[in-house]
Amino acid sequence: MSTEYSEVALKEKLHRLTNHPDSIQSLSSWIIQNSKYRESIIRVWSKDARKESNAARIVNLLYLANDVVQNCRKVCPELKDHFFPVLESVIKHSARNPPPEIERVLPKLVKVWREREVFSQSQLRRLDDALLQGKSSAAYPTPVSSVPDLSKNNPQKELLHEEVAKNCQEILISLQRLQAPPSTEREVRIQLATFPESISCPEMLQTIRDSSQAKEVLKHNEAALPLITDYCKRLGEEMLERRNLQQLLDNLMNNVRSCVEYHEKMLRDVKKKEDRLKSDLVEVEKAFNSLPDLNAEASFISRSLPALENLFDMGILEKIAEIEHEISRTQKNKATEYHLGLLKAKLAKYRQQLLEPSGKGGGKGEGFDVMKSGDARVAMVGFPSVGKSTLLSSMTNTHSEAAGYEFTTLTCIPGVINYEGANIQLLDLPGIIEGASQGKGRGRQVIAVAKTADLILMMLDAGKSDQQRALLEAELEAVGIRLNKRPPHIYVKQKKVGGVKFTHTVPLTHCNEKLIMTVLHEYKIFNADVVFREDCTVDEFIDVIQGNRVYLTCLYVYNKIDQISIEEVDRLARLPHHVVISCEMNLNMDYLLEKIWEYLALVRVYTKKPGNAPDLGAEDGIILRQGATVEHCCHALHRTLAAQFRYAIVWGTSTKFSPQRVGIQHLLHHEDVIQIVKK
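The structure corresponding to this sequence follows.
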């Protein structure tokens, strides 16, 4: 999809468009890359969508528009604004006596746009009206009740004016070509009249009596042939040009008629708005006249005015946005580090309040999480349509539906991977969107399940990897998930009295005592012991105070590598914690499974009964975490075995010689054999 833009190239790509997710997403990426030609792109897409009679093709075009308007919001929001008026018109056109396929797709798209807040509420209401008007009208649609944007930057207005201007320019060029048409060339007609009548009348051939007359006629025919051939060719071109001019004039008339109808509609809406404003003005005047006389009511002045905080009480989301804006525009230096530390502490508090469940009672919601089973849990996190469901279906025996539209998966779907004798639970979570940490698109439920995992697979589209990775990391960071980090070595213990005692065992470059006190006071902590055993930042200190952070290992999985260059695949594969795969072509799947086992850090230990051979079967081992001791193995076998433990005999790489008698704190390695002796 790296070809340069032209209308011919776009029409060819639209003609080759299929319902496969890769086909839709590839063309969507190409359109967004060429968004500077948005007027031409929207015009070509609209014409194809209106003239198409095949229902499946119309559905593909609608899915393409859906992918474009959702993915261009960060890169090129102007493309979405220009797309909306035409998208509204096409939906209204498609909703008139639609086939079953289109009738199912249209409400579903509008629902997705509403859940993901792709368009504003007024625009969504216009789309709902378009669906209703398309069903109830087979002729011209009634005007939309909402007042249109009458600014100079109205996309629909600009599109109509550009169409008229383009038609006028094309008509002018056509008229210039017809200034001296071949049909008016008098010299050619005079020259043709000088030839004898025999060259234009086949009946004259019957009057030829001898070879001399035949040679003379042949001579005249050969002399006239080039002139007649050229003249007929130019006459044919003139006829085609006149037909083209007629078509251009028809298009101009249609566009002018559309402009007139559009401006008449604007005038009607302006008149409605004027009438509404007049009625509102009358109501305001009545309310103003009904106000009490302040001079007569002295007691009214003595009443206390409401607090300013109550008048401008912002929600948590508005407060978070305000603090983030303040942090972004504050220069980072020694003078502002205390102010920034205070802002970060407030931001962490508000985010925690946002994640806490409301105290109000509510109805029983639909279940989302699944029971944790197996030896480890792996959660797949990513944007919609990056290949999570396809990966689950290819690595497990569980089928997860995959389709060409986003939000195919709406619940948590579990699967089980059997590898090295371990049962690894793999979760296919619904795609999350920007703002998921604030609850958009069931984001809180998805991230809550991700917190319970032992490993996170961050599924990324190789063609959009950098943008998607930054957004996903920001969303997980906002809800307290720290990827590929270890907990900071900071000790904080609250006391009842004694004030704050701050010590550190290493030199600090990011924090000092004053900054620590500022953060503690923001959390209403006035008595505590604080010990820094490593050089940590203020953000890490806030994480320790919050006490609800989850530190998880993360593996970045780049799917659809068959759609990018070899150089880009090589660059991504060399980055730390990265794996490149292609689910569709089954590329590098075995390596991904090996990396999952490596990042889960599991060890398999075999048991042996006294006097018997060890149980080395595929299902006989005990799966433990790396760094597990003999005590952990005892707890895995039976809850009372550790209390009855006397000693253990171990065969394997964890001992200096095999067998070796060890104690309960002995570290076990992968594929060790252990025999436990009780008291």
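The chain has a mean pLDDT of 80.
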